[in-house]
Amino acid sequence: MTPLSHYLILSALLFAIGFAGAVTRRNAVIVLLGIEFMLNAANLNFIAFWRYGDPSTSPTGVMVVMFSIAIAAAEAAVGLALIIAVYRHRKTVQIEQMDTLKG
Amino acid sequence: MPNKITFFITAILALTAAICAMRLRNPVHCALSAALAFAGLAAVYLELDAQFVAFAQLLVYVGAISILALFAVLLTRGMEVGPGAAIASRSWLTGIAIAIATLAVIAGPIYASSISFNLPTDSVVAPVHSIGQDLMSRYLLPLETIGLMLTAALIGAAVIASPDLITKTARHKAPAREPQKAEPILASTT
C-alpha cells in the first residue's frame, strides 16, 4: 500500500513543474498549460486527503474536485479566447511583447 | 486499491509528460504531452477510488482543455522560435529557483508531519448515486452557480475570440457624431 505522503509528493512535484513552466515560458498558451497543471495538483491533493482521511461516506473531496474541474475548464476557455484576441490585434503570442495596454 | 507498482508507473508517466509539456520547443508537442499527463493523472485518480473524478478528468481535461490548447496553438501560428532561439524568458533561472523553493516549502512539512499516512481500515467509496444526491441536496447552490458561470464564461469567450469585435469597436471610435451633439447643448444653455 502506498502511503499518503507519496501522493502528496506527486502533487507537490506537479505543482512545482506547472509553476516553473508558467513562470519561465514565453509562449502564452504554454503558460496557460502550466496553470492547468497547478490546478490539477491541487485536485490531486483534495482526492488524496479524501481517500486517506475520515472513513465516512460523504464524497466531499470529490465534490470540491468536480467544481474545481468545471472552473478550470471555464478559465481555460476564457484565457485562450483572450490569447486569440491579442494575437489578432498584435500578431504575437510571446508574453514579452504584450507589455503595453495601449491599442 | 492503491498498489505501489501501479502508483509508481502512473506517477512517473504523469511527471515525465508534465516535464515534457513544459520543456518542449514545439507548442503542439507541448499540448499533446500535456494531454498525456492529464490522462496519467486520471489513472492516479482511478487508483484513489475516485472513478467519477477520473472519467470527468478524461472528459474535461483531455477531451476539452487539451483540444482548446491545440486550437489556440493552431490559430496563433507563425510565432514559433527557431532552432537556436530561446524558449524561455531571460529570467528563467529565477523562475526555476522559485519553483524548487516552492517544492521544498510544500514537501518539507509533508515529511515532518506526525499524522498517520496509512490507508484507513474502512474504505471510502463515492458511488455516483451519492454524488448525484449530494449535488441535488447539499451542493445545489454551487451547482446552479457553476452552471451560470459556465454559460457566462463560454459566451464571453466566444465574444472575445470572434473576429467582428475589433472591427465593431473601430467603427464606434469614429468621431463623426460628436460635432452634431455639441450644438443643441450650447443652444439650450444660452
Averaged pLDDT of chain B: 82
Per DSSP, the total helix count of chain A is 3
Structural class based on helices, strands and sheet pairing of chain A = mainly alpha
**Weakly predicted, low-confidence segments of chain A:** none
Number of strands of chain B: 0
**Span between termini of chain A:** 57 Å
Instruction: Give a quick account of the main beta sheet of chain A: strands, pairing sense, barrel closure.
Output: none
Rg for CA atoms of chain A: 17 Å
Radius of gyration of chain B: 26 Å
- Percent helix range of chain A: over 70%
* Percentage of β-strand residues of chain A: under 5%
Let me know the number of strands of chain A. Answer: 0
Query: How far is it from the N-terminal to the C-terminal residue of chain B, by CA?
Result: 86 Å
User: What proportion of the residues of chain B form beta strands (DSSP E)?
Assistant: under 5%
Describe it for me?
- The complex is a heterodimer of chains A (103) and B (190).
- Chain A contains three helices and no strands.
- Chain B is mainly α.
- The model of chain B has no long low-confidence stretch (mean pLDDT 82).
- Chain B contains eight helices and no strands.
- At the A-B interface, helix 1, helix 2 and helix 3 of A face helix 1, helix 2, helix 3, helix 4 and helix 5 of B.
Pick out its properties.
A: 103 residues, mainly alpha, 0% strand, B: 190 residues
What is the structure about, briefly put?
With about 100 residues, chain A is mainly α.
Helix/strand layout:
The complex is a heterodimer of chains A (103) and B (190).
Chain A: H1 4-24, H2 28-51, H3 60-90
Chain B: H1 4-23, H2 27-47, H3 51-75, H4 92-112, H5 128-137, H6 140-161, H7 164-172, H8 178-189
